[in-house]
Write a structure and sequence with these properties.
Blueprint (H helix, E strand, L loop, with lengths): L1 E5 L6 H12 L5 E4 L7 H6 L9 E4 L2 E4 L1 H11 L10 H16 L2 H6 L17 H15 L12 H15 L6 H12 L1 H12 L11
Helix pairs in contact: 1-3, 1-7, 1-9, 4-7, 6-8, 7-8
Organism: Rhodoblastus acidophilus
Keywords: Transferase
GO molecular function: glutathione transferase activity; maleylacetoacetate isomerase activity
């Protein structure tokens, strides 16, 4: 039995990453939502992971936390699902990109908070220099997609960059045609559509992430 503990689908981009991957690759799991910043939520998360944060994957009583660790556990637990590209060099590059996403792009994240249920802004958001540098790097990564996804078939790398594609769409950020084509593939994926449908069905509201 595999259970994925996640935060609100509207706001939790880190929860989205393993959820999208498992859904896209047809890895069976049950989900349990622990609402972000709700009373008692941290205690519920601490009961299964020492960080008190989501996402957490529980498999037969074993808990793995943090999106990168969860992805690596899935790779080992379900080798037939091709969580990473089969080619060794592509696999290393995919891991590098996920690590870059995991630890970087702070300026863009701060400027563009995640809200999966939000419709696009009327006007593009103006970014500061640091966020524009982040956007330029994202454009370069997206433009290198081998089609339709970063390494041909859907992998963990695509799940990690889907929340970024959401930000590009919501905040109407300018990117090249090649990068836009890849972003649209991510947003058209059935797994993403399922996540967004779940986000729109939620009742939880965190005001500071609604008035963007």
């Amino acid at each position: 039995m595999t259970t994925l503990l996640i935060g609100n689908k509207a706001y939790s981009s880190w929860s989205a990453r393993p959820w999208l991957l498992m859904t896209a690759l047809d890895i069976p799991f049950a989900e349990k939502v622990i609402p972000l910043y709700a009373e008692g939520s941290r205690e519920k998360a601490l009961a299964v992971a020492p960080t008190g944060k989501v996402p957490v994957l529980i498999n037969d009583g074993f808990a793995a936390w943090d999106s990168l660790a969860i992805v690596e556990f899935l790779h080992e637990r379900f080798p037939e699902k091709n969580v990473w590209p089969a080619d060794a060099q592509k696999r290393a590059r995919a891991r590098s990109l996920c690590a870059e996403m995991h630890s970087g792009f702070q300026a863009l994240r701060q400027a563009c908070p995640t809200n999966f249920r939000r419709d696009p802004r009327e006007k593009p958001l103006e970014l500061d220099e640091a966020a524009r540098e982040n956007l330029s790097r994202i454009d370069a990564i997206f433009s290198q997609a081998e089609g339709p996804f970063l390494f041909g078939d859907y992998s963990a790398a695509d799940a990690f960059f889907t929340p970024v594609a959401t930000r590009l769409h919501i905040y109407r950020l300018p990117i090249s045609a090649g990068a836009q084509a890849y972003a649209q593939e991510l947003l058209a994926h059935p797994a993403y559509e399922g996540w967004r449908e779940g986000a729109r069905a939620e009742d939880w509201v965190i005001e500071r992430w609604e008035n963007l």
